[in-house]
Amino acid sequence: MFTTRVQQISARIRAFFQKSQWDRDLDHELDSHLAMAVEANIRKGMNEDEAWRAARVEFGGVTQLREAHRETRGLPFLDNLLQDLRYTFRTLRRDAGFTTFAILIAGLGIGASATVFSVVNALLLRPLPFTDPGRLTWIGNIADDRVSEWSLQVGNVINLKEQSKSFTDLAGYFAFSRAGENNLTGDGEPVRLTGVSVSSNFFPMLGVQPLIGRQFSADESKWNGPRAVLLNYGLWKTRYNSDPAIVGRNLTINQMPVTVAGVLPESFDFGSIFSPGSHVDLYMPFPMTEETNRWGNTLGVVGRLAPGATVQSAQAEFTVLAQHITKVHPERNSLRPTVKSLEEHVNGRFRPALLVLAYAVGVVMLIVCANLANLQLARAATRQKEMAIRVALGAGRGRLIRQMLTESLVLALCGTIPGLLLALAGVRLFAHLDSFKIPLLNSIRIDGSALGFTVALAVLTGLAFGLVAAFQAPRAGVHETLKESTRGANSGSKQHHWIRGALVVSEIAFACVLLVGTGLLVRSFIHVLDVNLGFQPERAASLRIDPSVQFTTPAKRNAYLDEVLRIARSVPGITAAGVTDTLPFAEGERSWDVFGKGQVFEKGHYPEGFVRDVSDDYIRTAGIPLIAGRDFTERDTPETEPVAIINETLARTLWPGQNPIGQMLSQDKGRRVVGVVADVRHKALEDAAGCEMYLPARQRGDWSGINLVVRTNLPPAELGSALRAALKPIEPNLAGNEFRTLQHLVDTASSPRRFVVFLLAGFSVFALILAALGIYALIAYSVNQRTQEFGIRMALGAGAADLQGRVLFQTLGLAGIGVMFGFTASWILARSLNGMLFGVTSSDPLTFASMVAALALVALVAGYVPARRASRIDPMIALRGD
Fold first, then answer.
1. Given CA atoms 660, 664, 665, 671 in this order, what sign does their dihedral have?
2. What are 149-187's pLDDT values in tens digits?
3. Strand partners of residue 303
4. What distance in Å separates the CA atoms of residue 590 and residue 502, rounded to the nearest whole number?
């Protein structure tokens, strides 16, 4: 049975590819049978014409016999499909304008969807580029405010690793590495590199193996052990031309020889996963020792769950272990570990924004389908007589529906070509947006999943907009359609009008939802940009400086600082200069317990102060308002009384209702508060400033790298080369890639929100254009249908303004219905955006009013051209029906 079935299928396939020969054989056989029948009839006494007629009657329909034979011998479905495709391409080629327009609209929608899918795929759907990433977790440490998270202390990590049964391994990295703090010299032009120190088991636990070379050895991971680095693939490729001999070579980093242990693979990008917006060039071993334990909470920690363990069970175990470790080691920092999947840590806070983008794409595609369906209905109206003729010739309802769907699917699939080109350009653009602090953004690409999504979306789009026209095509009565005049037949059935109106109303409603969401996020973005930063980034820039010499005394270190500031202030165009170890928005958080002398707090509930080391005049250079007291001066040295400047929030926290000037802080055996400055937002634009404390760099002895900040009356970009040239005599190894404006730091901090707003704004503009096209097409069609009506009205005395008003009133009526439905849907759906809004509510009246005004304006503009054409109709020509 099975063998017979296979033989039948094989025979059908051979017949399909040899159908020309089979047709010729069939025709020859039919002709032979007819000839024999004719000859027999002639022998019966018929003449030749009668013999042929009788033979054909006896034989039956030759055409039907051929069709029946084809259906039994070959692949009828494929034959019919090819026939439909050939007919489709002929008709679409004939309607070139419609075809081009439909393909472009479908392509724009598909391209936008494929681009956003690639982003969502990289950030949410595609597994992290590690071995068995589903077993990886992030271990945080809840801070005293119970909201933010700390890093962990080395000793606590070691104890958790030793005592836990839920994890096979815990690894960490130094969470306070700063951009550009490693100066590579002695090998071409000096360049600033960003490095991260990791525990020796960090890469093995993630399953990341060096492309060439080896992992860190046990000796290299000891305190003061041999210096070694693993290079990032990009640095190896660009700086060393992918030279495999780099392994084992000594490099000079921060004036010290360092051995290259290996090169990591291209697929690993620490910055895009653990520190979005940053680029890491090299990795050093971090010693898990008592020396690093004294540094406090410094480790970002990743763990791998043991078989059978879950995030929930691991959290329960760590809660118990933390209580035990805290009792055994009361001298350590607070330990309140929190466990969540690494994937949630990487993309969790971006998930709502990405879902909003996905919903926006869905809305855009619905508008695209409605617009294309309207175009198909308009085109179907001109093909009524064609469809009636096909029905009269025997085409069934199913065959007509299939033909219309085939045309729609071909249009949609052709739209994938410009759509993929648009998606490739969009993905390439987003992958190179280094200033956006979005994880895994540089890993987006058009892969197999994106291609599959694009094709599936094209098919669904073709079916969605094709079904409406397909099921309407055969509805007109054949007899009535064929009796109508050419004008009547081409104008289309009036029963289509309400369907086209409903599609336009739906377009407006969908556009309304998209506009409200975009408007709320744009308003939030504007509010974010309008927040009081606490400093003035305009016309200010920074340059990273690491002294190339080791200072043996505080006096030599301060002399170096004096010289840097003197030279910087002498550069033409620079009006002020100062140094800081931490720039706003640019570095990891460094917080200390801070309280006034004599103040007592419960353990684990001390106020946290963000600490910065700054020089004299930094406050003025950064544009931070001095509220009370004084700035630091050159006289604030190790020999003078330790002093500090605090911000307003810390002043209110420690001494509410009191004058903080002259009060003593507990740090360094006591520091006197000499000034109070405005709060500075240093973590995120949306987050209010916390407690902050500024310490004079001249009194501090533990800084090695500093950021020189300058204020200028010239465009900051013009100062980079001049400033480096001026400083070269005392700092010859200054890198050329570390001069950046403070405004760039602000822009980078707002980049995730700007990314979402940018895409949503593009979708909204596209939706408005499609809605305008839909309105225009419907009103133009309506004006064409009512030509005789308008001619009669003008003959009876109606003026041009009256006709224009009627058409525009019809336009606004459609827009009003669409806005009514869209307003209701927007009111409900806008509440889902509450977590992303800043400074506005989901029911912001200005946003809703702006949406109504924008759609009304678009409707008027779209309806004006048909209205103007209606007012110019010649009554005589209209009444004659020409």
1. positive
2. 678 999 999 999 999 999 999 999 998 777 767 888 877
3. 137, 170
4. 59
